[in-house]
Amino acid sequence: MSVSGRVVKPTTRRGKRTLQKREPQVIEDPKRALFLKGRKTSELVRRALKDVYQMKKPDALMFAKRNDITVFEDPTPLERHCKKNECAHFLLGSHSKKRPNNLTIGRMFNYALLDMVELHIESYKSLMDFIGPKMTLGIKSCLLFNGPQWDESDDLKMLRSIFIDFFHREQIDAIRLQGIEHTLSFSVTPAGIICLRSYKVLLKKSGLSIPRVELEEIGPRIDFSLRRTKPASPDLMKEACKKARELIPHKKRNISMDVFGTTHGRIHVGKQEILRIQTRKLKGLKKTGEEKWAKQKKLKVLEK
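The chain above was modelled as a monomer; its predicted structure follows.
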């Protein structure tokens, strides 16, 4: 459906494939994020946008020019950009006298605004200010949320959910120890400051089978404070969290699992006529005529 309500029908095979890719899929591809600047941005905001863009690549797209967008007043231009570029997340940087050094992070659902949070950059240290190794392109980060405040405030719960969706990549079922190479730490201080830290995970010898783990900060280092928030309506959030039927596990009959994780199955076997089963195949083991006559006589008695 387009904005006017008319049905968009493809006229070419390429257009048909494009519309099919935009339709809901059972297993979705990694969500892309759109990075863009507002009417006015400061040098600090531009560097912060660039660093977060480096962390999100290759599932990211950045606009070079400024955009006349005030997302809290009118999200329509942002929704149009996200739909055109097939982006489910966005990070908007802006700077004004009333709200300096401002970042707005949010999510889309069905190419319409779902929810968003406005953050103020309290302090910032760029990725280039850290000497040492940098992040690998497309790396899957381990997300850590420190502090009980994440479960005490509705705004922080929504922000945690947005961060998890924003930095999430492909769905994986298992991971080895050497696969944990990078971690993102989100901490909340008693004063309400949200601290973002980026670490490289180093596995060193410990003399045991389990290595000694050390963290080396590689940047960026950003401290946020909450400003405005726009949560999603309960009905829209319920629709956005709906799972496909193919992904919902169904209970299998006659299969159970005990407390130790062992799977047990129950097999139902029909009635077997043991007397009619041929068990002797060798010529020397074949039944004689008397044995055959006795077996037939016994079967007739059983049938009666």
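Residues 1-5 have pLDDT under 50 and may be disordered.
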